[in-house]
Amino acid sequence: MYVKGSNIKASREVNSRLASLLLTRMLPLLSNGSGSESSADVRTSKVRAHWILLLMKILQPGLQTAPQKPALCPLLITTSQTACSCETLVSSLVREQNRGTVEAMVRRQRPRRLACLALMAVLLADLLALSDTLAVMSVDLGSESMKVAIVKPGVPMEIVLNKESRRKTPVTVTLKENERFFGDSAASMAIKNPKATLRYFQHLLGKQENNPHVALYRARFPEHELGFDPQRQTVYFQISPQLQFSPEEVLSMLLNYSRSLAEDFAEQPIKDAVITVPAFFNQAERRAVLQAARMAGLKVLQLINDNTATALSYGVFRRKDINTTAQNIMFYDMGSGSTVCTIVTYQTVKTKDAGLQPQLQIRGVGFDRTLGGLEMELRLREHLAGLFNEQRKGQGTKDVRENPRAMAKLLREANRLKTVLSANADHMAQIEGLMDDVDFKAKVTRAEFEELCADLFERVPRPVQQALQSAQMNLDEIEQVILVGGATRVPKVQEVLLKAVGKEELGKNINADEAAAMGAVYQAAALSKAFKVKPFVVRDAVIYPILVEFTREVEEEPGVRSLKHNKRVLFSRMGPYPQRKVITFNRYSHDFNFHINYGDLGFLGPEDLRVFGSQNLTTVKLKGVGESFKKYPDYESKGIKAHFNLDESGVLSLDRVESVFETLVEDSPEEESTLTKLGNTISSLFGGGSTPDTKENGTDTVQEEEEGPAEGSKDEPGEQAELKEEAEARAEDTSPPPPSEPKGDAAPEGEKATEKDSGEKPEAQPSEKGEVGSEGVPPAPEEGKKQKPARKQKMVEEIGVELVVLDLPDLPEDELAHSAQKLQDLTLRDLEKQEREKAANSLEAFIFETQDKLYQSEYQEVSTEEQREDISGRLSATSTWLEDEGFGATTVMLKEKLAELKKLCQGLFFRVEERKKWPERLSALDNLLNHSSMFLKGARLIPEMDQIFTEVEMTTLEKVINETWAWKNATVAEQAKLPATEKPVLLSKDIEAKMMALDREVQYLLNKAKFAKPRPRPKDKNGTRAEPPLNASTSDQGEKVIPPPGQTEDAKPVSEPEKETRSESADSEPLELGGPGAESEQKEQPTGQKRTLKNDEL
């Protein structure tokens, strides 16, 4: 970037222009990185302040010399002293830029420094661009409502408010032909259009058409028409012949809406998210959620179980209470659609990276998929429908259950009634115009409600028993039971649960609605690279075990071969995840298949097994096994290794399948020099031979490369496959991970290091069998070559894999892209509609506001009657057009109408605004003129020997002051002669320009005084020092300097000690940022300008 050439002056000019252009582009970026409103600048003020100060520090070394005009260097020091905010700093930078001094300032820099500055500025621009996308979000997807939380710089863990300023948003979507509604707006549409309003659609995720939950959904919400997808054997919502959406697409719409809420709240784009899912979700259901997030364009950092998120939130806010003693806490979460009971163990563990840190471990989980508040509301709705039919019995009317709108009203009333009965013994249910304009009113007691849900309350203890059984614990080991979820507020639920757990009381010291969202957003911040949080180790548990099944031929008797079915558990029940595992198939030399299925699900009841769906996950077909064996015929096979990964989201994947071969390779012997032979002989005589430890160290690394004890498995006919856990980076594991498998001819790093050491040391090497000779026996003299030990060479061949999904096929990539595009088109249509509504509202609001202003005195004062009549007529005509034709008008037409009206009223509004600004601007100008005059008068009173300002500088300031006074008096007088209805000649922008010019001259002199060095005092003719100042200390006045022998006092002025001068200059120098250029700046100071007097002697 540095321009070379013979013309140094031209080179400097080119580099100056380059740096000037770069600074001109950087300053707007620093002042407002995204181009948004001023409120958006505050969101990353700390980040921007850091990079601004860093950029200014880079600029400072070349700007330290005294400038002819105010530059960036004094601005930096002023900012450092006062510790002003980032907004003040940015405005100061922009003001300096407007003065036109940036280019002149940069031209004084050296060309080499300018090239480095340009490179650094480009890097800073990239970092500043990244700082605008630091926020992450979490979505707690409940059955009835969702909570969204964000973390961004300066805002730690905050719940997002929706458009209605509520912290909880209904999980409801209304889909029409030309518009969509979400949240509270969609919930209100459920009464008007129940068929197009979708709720509780998460219950259909990952379910095939024959699943009992699909039939249950049809029974609960008969107004929805569910179509059948023959390709995936799933269902979709048939809103109309033209509108049909799968449950994944509906969920994607809701996730996109939640992201829009988070972005509006954070005032910046967000892509990274952590989404909560029920702990009982299987692989198909989890993949469905991930596909929905892909359609919405979200990057899912993790699918976290809602019970784990709740436990994490509880532990984060009680970090100080966690110690090395294990604490077992039970969380009982009854929401709207399901119930989950979780046993969590909290304790501190020693981690490899962060030392002693708190950890939560999921020990046991029990659940009920259909036990929740929704089922209670449906029971109440059925009860209210029966009461309404009894009231109208004999009137020949149809059943209220056949009217979808009436049933939607009853369900809403049942929800309200359940909430009220939790605090009251009875309540009156009433609905106006339930059906056929007939009002409904009935009294319901808590006893009736508990009788309706008696069988549901009997199911409350079952998840507790399942959790204890899976954790292999009893109730005595549980320290506390904490309630989570909205349905736990029902008194009968608490009564039954308290009796089941046998505790004195139930814990209610957690936010039952927001705990999962807060825990999930903490995990999102921990997973994001933009934030650093205190470590909290999370060990989740596998609910459904996963195993591998395969069939092989065995020879039980000579000549008799049969097929044998084998099962190997990959991930056991309640085992921790995430983790990776490797399974090795030892006795296959041709292509074969194996199956990945769920393990023992005996802990599920018959009905739960039906809801669970297919127990077969995937069939894996391997291709290329036989070819790999033909490729390496001379190598020993170490088996076919399949690498599995159960990631943080609980989703299983097959990373790769490899065929591993191994052989022994002997390196060619190398001749030893005479000096080496002599050294080996002497070393052997003094006991310097090889030791058994050398052999052990040399072979341990090779053994670690093996995936498993393959040789041992061959001896056992029943064991044909083996598992090995890969080194997973768990917080509690302090052992280093095993080395990865090198491919090709490369040897492991440990082997290379061992060979290097053995080559440098003249020691006897052990034999291949591991036998080590006696220490004191030297090698035979006739051996002139050094024999290196044989090493193992590993070859890895990738095996082709074909996966056949058995539980629920994923959407093909083309269909996934089509769904994403369809949803994006709907989003664009909604944005266009919002833009049109915004334009129409703006036009209507402008008409009403302007018509009202025409009758205000301040507007009548600056306008004539004809002008007001013209404006009023145009406003009335536009209002009539908006009422008659505005419904079909486009956004462009509405904006054009608004622009025409604003142009018509521009002169009127300008005159009013200018008159409002005059008093404040003129008062500020008068104050500045008075202070500037006082400053000039004081500057002229400085004695000549102490004067730091030149006559030209003071004359220039005096000229600016006089010109400003003259301009102000003349313009005010001219404005007084003009009528109020004419365009004013006294403009606020001109006043501000005059103030800026005057302030620039004053600030220049102030900055010069700040950096000026006092001149040394000359001695008088009698050889005595000048009179000390009046404010000097008595100790300074009493000092007497005795010259050395042989030297008169007239020989040389006496200067103060250097140490004192340094301390005084350090006290008087302003605070500067430390950096690599600080020392060079000090060295560039001329030595002749060292201070020898104190500040108060000026």
TrEMBL record:
Entry keyword set: ATP-binding, Chaperone, Endoplasmic reticulum, Membrane, Nucleotide-binding, Signal, Transmembrane, Transmembrane helix
Bias type Polar residues, positions: 675-684
- GO CC terms of this entry: endoplasmic reticulum chaperone complex; endoplasmic reticulum lumen
- Please provide the Gene Ontology terms (biological process) for this protein: endoplasmic reticulum unfolded protein response; negative regulation of hypoxia-induced intrinsic apoptotic signaling pathway
Q: What is its main location?
A: endoplasmic reticulum
- Please list the GO terms describing molecular function: ATP binding; ATP-dependent protein folding chaperone
Where do Basic and acidic residues bias regions lie?
Answer: 712-733, 742-772, 1049-1065
Q: Where in the cell is it found?
A: Endoplasmic reticulum lumen
For the keyword Translocase, the answer is no
* Stretch list, region Disordered: 665-793, 1009-1098
Which protein family is named in the record?
Answer: Belongs to the heat shock protein 70 family.
Function of this protein? Has a pivotal role in cytoprotective cellular mechanisms triggered by oxygen deprivation. Promotes HSPA5/BiP-mediated ATP nucleotide exchange and thereby activates the unfolded protein response (UPR) pathway in the presence of endoplasmic reticulum stress. May play a role as a molecular chaperone and participate in protein folding.
The annotated subunit structure for this chain is: Part of a large chaperone multiprotein complex comprising DNAJB11, HSP90B1, HSPA5, HYOU, PDIA2, PDIA4, PDIA6, PPIB, SDF2L1, UGGT1 and very small amounts of ERP29, but not, or at very low levels, CALR nor CANX.
Q: Which PANTHER family match?
A: HSC70CB, ISOFORM G-RELATED (PTHR45639), HYPOXIA UP-REGULATED PROTEIN 1 (PTHR45639:SF3)
Q: What is this protein called?
A: Hypoxia up-regulated protein 1
